[in-house]
Write a structure and sequence with these properties.
By secondary structure, this protein is α/β, with parallel strands linked by helices. Helices cover 36% and strands 20% of the residues. Strands 5-4-3-6-7 form a five-stranded parallel sheet, with helices on both faces. The longest helix is centred in the C-terminal third of the chain and has 16 residues.
Length: 230
């Protein structure tokens, strides 16, 4: 293990970084499908890395299954197959893979998956699970950015339900405001509010949508910027 000091902006204090020993990856499981998996396979093969995929029955004739060096069937509901952490890790271990590449989408931003992969003695090709957990929660991410001196958009977390308080806080940062889910992504749980009279209704809709989509109804309210489509 090596420790180095990285110098950032002029006048900034050096940041201590720990560089872990690099482990040669010879074989990976790609926990994804379609074009994403095909692109990873192409890049990995150029590096001399053996590629493994796991596929549900409906993908047995998919291109990534034929492009991979090894393909293993898994048995899950059609919509859940590439989210089945247990089966994906099981295939990785049985195939003798060194690491799992999540691609993007599916489990790529799932902190539990990253932690489970690492706990199984495999490398997760992506951020550490703690980083994923922090950056996957918008309020934690903003607090982290602020602690590092990074400017953030003015806003606040919805911790109160009092309408007068919420209106006052929103007016302080300035309308229009953007309500958005603290978890997840894809635009779910997001609402642009132009006037204070619409605030409570839009908060209710955003909370309901976030709860249904992510199992977390937490939202934050931020200043938003006028531009195309707003």
């Amino acid at each position: 293990m090596h420790v180095v000091h990285i110098i950032g902006a002029v006048g900034a204090a050096p940041v201590q970084a720990i560089l872990l020993p690099m482990i040669r990856i010879k074989k990976i499981l790609i926990a994804n499908r379609g074009e994403i998996a095909v692109r990873i396979i192409k890049a990995a093969k150029e590096m001399g890395i053996v590629c493994v995929v796991a596929y549900p029955p409906h993908d047995r004739l998919a291109l990534h299954v034929f492009k991979a060096d090894e393909a293993y069937p898994i048995f899950s509901d059609k919509t859940e197959a590439y989210l089945d952490i247990d089966q994906l890790i099981d295939v990785a271990l049985k195939s003798g893979a060194d690491a799992i590449h999540p691609g993007y989408g599916f489990l790529s931003e799932n902190a539990l998956f990253a932690r489970r992969v690492q706990s199984a003695g495999l490398q997760f090709i992506g951020p550490d699970h703690e980083a994923i957990a922090t950056m996957g929660d918008k309020m934690k991410a903003k607090k982290m950015a602020t602690s590092c001196g990074v400017p953030v958009i003015p806003g606040f977390e919805l911790l109160e339900t009092d309408e007068a308080y919420l209106r006052k806080q929103s007016e302080a940062i300035g309308f229009p405001v953007l309500i958005k889910a603290r978890a997840g992504g894809g635009g779910k749980g997001m609402r642009v509010v132009h006037e204070a009279k619409d605030l409570m209704e839009q908060i209710g809709q955003a909370v309901s949508e976030a709860t249904a989509a992510f199992g977390d109804g937490g939202v934050l309210i931020e200043n938003t910027f006028k531009g195309p489509g707003i």
